[in-house]
Amino acid sequence: MDLFEYQGKQYFARFGIPTSPGGVADTVDQAVAQAEQAGYPVVVKAQVKVGGRGKAGGIKLAADADEVRTHAGAILGMDIKGHTVERLWIENASDIAKEYYASFTLDRAAKVHLGMLSARGGVDIEEVAAEEPEAIARLHVDPTEGIDAAAARAWVDDANLDPEAREQAAAVLLTLYRCYVEGDCDLAEINPLILTTDGRVHALDAKVTLDDNARYRHPEWEEFAATEVEDPRERRAKEKGLNYIGLSGSVGIIANGAGLAMSTLDVVNQVGGTAANFLDIGGGANADVMAAALEVINSDEAVRSILVNIFGGITRCDEVANGVVEALGRVDIASPIVIRIDGTNAEAGREILKPHLSDRLRARPTMLDAAREAVALAAAATGEGAR
Amino acid sequence: MSIFVDERTKVIVQGLTGSQGRFHGLRNRDYGTKVVAGVTPGKGGSSVDGIPVYDSVGEAVDKTGADASFVVVPPPAAAGAILDAAAAGIALIVCITEGIPAQDEALAYNRLRRDFPATRLIGPNCPGVISPGKCNIGITSGDIAMAGGPVGIVSRSGTLTYQALHELSQQGVGQTTCVGIGGDPVPGTNFIDCLERFEADPDTKAVMMIGEIGGSEEERAADFIRDHMTKPVVAYIAGVTAPPGRKMGHAGAIVSGSQGTAQGKIDALTAAGATVAQNPTEAGEAMVEVVRKL
Predict the structure, then answer these.
(1) Could you tell me if B190 and B285 lie in one domain?
(2) Which domains are seen in chain A, by residue range?
(3) B160 shares a domain with B112
(4) What pLDDT does residue A270 have?
(5) Catalytic residue flag (residue A101)
(6) Residue B129 maps to a domain
(7) Half-sphere exposure of A281 (CA within 13 A, CB side)
């Protein structure tokens, strides 16, 4: 789960990473009230989960209430790379002397944590990495050892941060690491981490990605989850506990296992079709899960045919077949279904399906055959211009 | 021969008294695997379908001489269960648990590396390991595998692993061992670990490798194939059409920028001399061709 900047800063603040005083606003009046509280001049910042806000005109400096009104009015409702701005973060403007970059993430290749620190902050770190890789001081941190103050100071020196920032920056890095580990972040990034003209080091931005697997031990994440803007199809799927990603094609996909689901998308593509979604019903898929999956796909008006691709491991094909039959009884499925089942109890599953097979429910023996059939059905339906 | 497990492997099931542990543990035993004990703290002294249950891995090892463990416990308990098994001297740990927090997984991996370097972890979030006709630890359906070799399989995805086994068995091509290394960001065993063992195993004559988007393990495996593999490799990479920046179910399957794309992996493997198929069926057919020419 990606956090908005203001949520990231609130998360940082819990652990004691210094940030500027500020607050959120959903209206122009709220923006003015937050500005009065934070103290002028303030920065009015669009809250969207996408980079390049500054260039798009989503970050503005305001010296007084009138300027806050002007900027807040212009930014609220603005479209930034397909994201509509519905919320602002208003904070006291900082006098910036230097901009640094700091982050922690997992280095999958080395299988330990990776800290990155640079005196070149405030710009896209991927650009820095490409143009001037030596400007990024990388520190591998073994999770069994963590990082201590001496190592943090040495790291700051290695990154050539300014001497007057050294102690505070080292302290921020230690806290950021604690936030990353104890806060179960996939990514905890401060860009820029600034040194102010009066010698204070603090976080001017926050980019935090939380590890969804750790949600069970973070009840406080509920408020972050509540603000997630989702595709309505994805929201419905999530409510039913399905792993769904909306795409723009015409063949609805239901598969078990992420690998098989991805592979099903690929095969549909190879035989000339386009997938309407990624949907992994997971292991142990029973009738309820299958019915829910079909309902979600059925609610997508772009879908012209549905491809069900199941290979039973934990999932038992007879349960899947029962699920399909039951779902057909419960939901009026608008598109024809092509199903391929194999693996655990596949024969029993095929027997269950047999009496229900028709033009609306077809069974095919292999993944490739089933994909071809589903793509042909989608093409035919699109040609007719009707569902 | 086979890699990692064989007909002598003695297995305990951590979580045997749970519904999943019972289902798969008994299924593994029915397949012929020597499932000698279960471990569930607080349920020592009971039994599951004749299999004795102990309170700790240490006790189970003392009583049964087990050398492998099948970890099938919920995510909050999984990292601890893995370390318990390692501390009790278990040499091979297979963990199928999906949804372990990344921080726990990274910590457990590095504890193993530091304190128990001889212990091998397969998974988490994987289907397990099967040497057809000898031993099956995990959730793979034994009846889709075929004994006798000559193909070794290593795969990151669960269902695609089954698909690969099925494609080969249908064509009459058997397997020496099939290892599902799992789709998480920090797998205990990686492609190279398996490729190395398959290369050294006299009964394995060819290797099928199934990868997917995300990370750089397939690229590293390609380097290994180029530099160290004499046996033919057929590969398939899932996720060519996956949208960038989205997590496709597996925590590991996410493309960030130009990193970890399917095409990059396909190019690396092709350049390393592997035969790269476009879909699982084609991979099966390509392997049949390879085996015919052996």
Answers:
(1) yes
(2) 21-92 (3.30.1490.20), 96-225 (3.30.470.20), 232-384 (3.40.50.261)
(3) no
(4) 94
(5) yes
(6) no
(7) 32
- B214 and B179 share a domain? yes
Q: Which residues of B touch A270 (CB under 8 A)?
A: 278-279
**Which residues in chain A (95-114) have CB-CB distances under 8 A to chain B?**
106, 108-109, 111-113
Which CATH number do you get for residue B75? 3.40.50.720
Q: Considering only the beta carbons, identify the residue of B140, B238, B279 that sits closest to A313.
A: B140
Same-domain status, B77 and B156: no
ipTM of the complex: 0.90
Q: Which domain holds residue B275?
A: 141-292
> In this complex, do A280 and B249 lie within 8 Å of one another by their Cβ atoms?
yes
Which residue shows structure tokens 């033009």?
A359
> Is position B130 within any domain?
no
- CA of A180: how far to CAs of A8, A141, A154, A174, B99, in Å? 11, 12, 20, 10, 18
Q: How far is B257 from chain A (nearest CA, A)?
A: 10
Instruction: Answer whether the bond into residue B75 is a cis peptide, omega within 30°.
Output: no
Is the minimum CB–CB distance between A216 and chain B shorter than 8 Å?
Answer: yes
Asked whether residue B239 falls in the same domain as residue B274, the answer is yes
d(CA A230, CA A227): 9
Contacts of A224 (CB under 8 A, 6+ apart): A1, A3, A7, A210
Same domain, B101 and B211: no
The one-digit pLDDT tens for each residue of chain A (387 residues) are 899 999 999 999 999 999 999 999 999 999 999 999 999 999 999 999 888 898 899 999 999 999 999 999 999 999 998 889 999 999 999 999 999 999 999 998 889 999 999 999 988 888 888 889 899 999 999 999 999 999 999 999 999 999 999 999 999 999 999 999 999 999 999 999 999 999 999 999 999 999 999 999 999 999 998 887 667 778 878 777 788 888 999 999 999 888 899 999 999 999 999 999 999 987 666 778 888 899 899 989 999 999 999 988 777 888 889 888 988 888 888 999 999 998 878 899 999 999 999 999 999 999 999 999 999 999 998 875 444
| Domains held by chain B: number | 2
Token pair for residue B118? 């001889």
Whether B87 and B218 share a structural domain: no
CA distance B220 to B210: 14
The alpha carbon of residue A232 is apart from the nearest alpha carbon of chain B, in Å, by: 16
Q: Are residues B174 and B237 in the same domain?
A: yes
Helix (H) or strand (E) holding B52: strand B51-54
